[in-house]
Amino acid sequence: MKISNLLLPAFLGALFLLTGCERPPTDTVQHGFRGTGMVQVYNPRLLAIKTEENEVPASLPAVPTDGPKAGQVYKNVKVLGNLSVNEFTRLMLSMTTWVAPNEGCAYCHNLANLAEDTKYTKVVARRMIEMTRHINADWKTHVAETGVTCYTCHRGNPVPNYVWFKEPEQDKGADFIGDRAGQNLAATSVGLSSLPSDPFTPFLLGELDIRVNGSTALPSGNRHSIKQAEWTYGLMTHMSSSLGVNCTYCHNTQSFSSWKGSPPQRATAWHGIRMARDLNTAYLEPLAPVFPQHRLGELGDAAKANCATCHQGAYKPLNGQSMLKDHPQLAGPGVQTQVASANKK
Predict the structure, then answer these.
(1) Comparing 65-149+327-345 with 168-322, is the CATH topology the same?
(2) DSSP 3-state assignment of 333?
(3) In the predicted model, what is the mean pLDDT of residues 225-239?
(4) What is the per-residue pLDDT across 46-63, written as a single tens digit (0 to 9) for each?
(5) CA distances from 80 to 91, 155, 285 (A)
(6) Are 212 and 174 in contact (CB under 8 A)?
(7) Domain boundaries of the chain, sorted by first residue
(8) What pTM, to 2 d.p., does this model score?
(9) CA distance 98 to 145
């Protein structure tokens, strides 16, 4: 009886520890150079679930591109007026199923007067169309020819499942820790680790240097501290979980900081970080005055994008399946294309 009483706490403790582990089986695939340990670890059971979650919906049948333009027939069409009425209607119906399948057209429009901009959702949707076209035209270094559509992020939800807001400053309290730098919260944003839980504000909104090692010895200009490295690790942990990959997907384990010998995915990720920063600063953050209070964060900021917003656990959004080929109206023109065209006039 005494032995049982001693073993019970140990047994319960072991069960508690196992709840944080992934149930087998797991498998590995050689990803990088032989002998470097650059393999991808995955669980076939979980992979099957993610594959199902990243299936693309069926597209509406293609329609003729000729005929009157939407801008000539409808009022207040500021972005897609160059599309034919058929193309315009098809895209609007598609967007409804991508973003608000339950609410329908009324989510963005006053059904008594579709031309009105009285609903904030319509103002936001127009800006999101511009952002989508900007991504597809000007960020091919990250999205290539696969591109994105509204569904890439929304997946049938008015608000994408994965967005982020700025975090309020932590109450330092009277403990010995002092400035906790957003740590010790076990946040899902950084894989339930004790790393800083908001690596997005400094890196995907600001332009803080993403580095771990300093390039010079102390004290001459080397400000890459352990605390700064932890912010970088927080971002890398987020990227890893968002794409469903390990660190070796982008890095050569012989030297994580060196670009020499790194897989090409690292360059794609480099552009992705800058793309997210561009979208957050130029499109999403400026929308804060448009949103009602209940759609804003605790600090009054608008929802913003990170890697998980598009990837949602897949190494490529929707496992690399392109919806843009069926909706080329979202391919452009982008901001840079428009600027170049204006300069020629």
Answers:
(1) yes
(2) coil
(3) 86
(4) 777 788 888 899 999 999
(5) 10, 22, 23
(6) no
(7) 65-149+327-345, 168-322
(8) 0.85
(9) 20
CATH number assigned to the domain covering 168-322: 1.10.468.10
Task: List the beta bridge partners of residue 113.
Answer: 110
State the residue for tokens 């793309």.
275
Amino acid code (one letter) for 39: V
CB atoms within 10 A of CB 26: 12
**Two tokens, residue 170:** 């932590």
Using CA atoms, how far apart are residues 131 and 309, in angstroms rounded to an integer? 14
Give CATH for domain 65-149+327-345: 1.10.468.10
User: How confident is the model at residue 340, as a pLDDT?
Assistant: 46
Distance CA 161, CA 155 (A): 8
Cα-Cα end-to-end distance for the chain? 91
Token representation of residue 30:
């050689």
- The two three-digit tokens of residue 120, written as one number: 């904030």
Cis check: omega of the bond before 219, within 30 degrees of 0: yes
**How many helices (H) does the chain have, and how many strands (E)?**
12, 2
Q: Which long-range contacts (CB under 8 A, 24 or more apart) does 131-136 make?
A: 131/279, 131/283, 131/284, 132/330, 133/330, 133/331, 133/332, 133/333, 133/334, 134/283, 134/334, 134/335, 135/275, 135/279, 135/334, 136/324, 136/330, 136/331, 136/332, 136/334
- Indicate the angle between helix axes 335-344 and 120-138, nearest 10 degrees: 80
Among 322, 320, 300, residue whose Cα is nearest residue 311: 320
